[in-house]
């Protein structure tokens, strides 16, 4: 399977696990707590498969950055958390960084 598809699955699994973590209320809610374990377990498994084919710096930077952006979006949409101009600017910098690492830089496996 294409490593970026696996990385996408790892990111989605992490987003699921992190959302479940918010809903677990300090692990006092059983179903979301199970979702945390399943989400993060799947995320790390898929991330390990991705690392078999892509450089660790590229993988981790992409995984972390898109996770941050995704969680921020979930916070706004699902949990009604605020976002401001400075936050949007920061997210733009993260997107620019991921673009540079994956497209412009020689770090990635083109």
Task: Explain the overall architecture.
It is flat and about 45 Å long. It has one domain. The chain has helices spanning 3-23, 30-50, 56-77, 85-104. Helices cover 76% and strands 0% of the residues. By secondary structure, the chain is mainly α. GO terms for molecular function: transmembrane transporter activity. InterPro entries: EmrE-like, Small_drug/metabolite_transptr, Small_multidrug_res. The chain crosses the membrane at residues 33-51, 58-79, 85-104.
Quick rundown:
InterPro entries: EmrE-like (IPR037185), Small_drug/metabolite_transptr (IPR000390), Small_multidrug_res (IPR045324). This protein is an all-alpha fold and 110 residues long.
